[in-house]
Structure formats: C-alpha cells, structure tokens
Design goal:
Elements lengths: L3 H24 L10 H47 L28
C-alpha cells in the first residue's frame, strides 16, 4: 500500500469499526434484565407511603393556614374598628407623686 489516501481511509475505517464494536459490547444486549431487589422494592413502598403522608400533611397545613388567615382578617377588622372608634372619656390615672429626699453624702475614710 503505497497510496497515502487509501492508508488514511483504512485507518479511519478501522477506528470506526473498533469504536462500533466497543459500543456494541458495552451495551451488553445479551445480559438478562436485572430483577428487582427486595431493598429496591422496600424503598419504592416507603416512597409511596411518604408521598401519601406528605399529601395529608399538606392538606392539613392548608386548612390550618386558611383558618389562620380568616382569624387574622377578623382581628385586623377589629383593630381597624377600634382605631376608628372615638376614645372613651375616662379620667386619666393620677400620676404618682414624686418626693425629693435630701440625704447627707456618704463618705468613708479608712486609715491603714
């Protein structure tokens, strides 16, 4: 083989054939399908159970939030009504009396 182009095509064809063979062997079409392991089945059952519990908890949270939201709206209406209502005319509580006491200064002398 003295033709360099033919040699290049032969090398390229050999590489393509090599990688195609490699891909076919890596796919392992003759291997049987793996049967489901007991651990995987248990994990799937646990996942389903957790999904059901999650849906129940989500519904409970939504109900509690709805109750909270209605109570909050009611409380805000009460506060708004209290703020707009006139203040009752009740006498103000008496201020505590303040007294001033004069005490002689405390001095301490120590002799050693």
């Amino acid at each position: 083989m003295t033709d360099h182009v033919a040699r290049l095509y032969a090398a390229a064809l050999a590489l393509v054939a090599f990688f195609l063979t490699w891909a076919a062997i890596a796919a392992r079409p003759w291997a049987p399908e793996a049967t489901e392991s007991p651990q995987l089945a248990a994990l799937e059952r646990r996942e389903q159970r957790l999904r059901r519990e999650s849906a129940l908890v989500q519904r409970k949270v939504e109900r509690r939030f709805a109750v909270y939201h209605t109570r909050l709206a009611e409380r805000e209406r009460e506060i708004a009504a209290a703020q707009t209502a006139p203040a009752p005319s009740a006498p103000a509580p008496a201020a505590p009396s303040v007294g001033v006491v004069s005490v002689p200064p405390v001095t301490s002398t120590r002799s050693s």
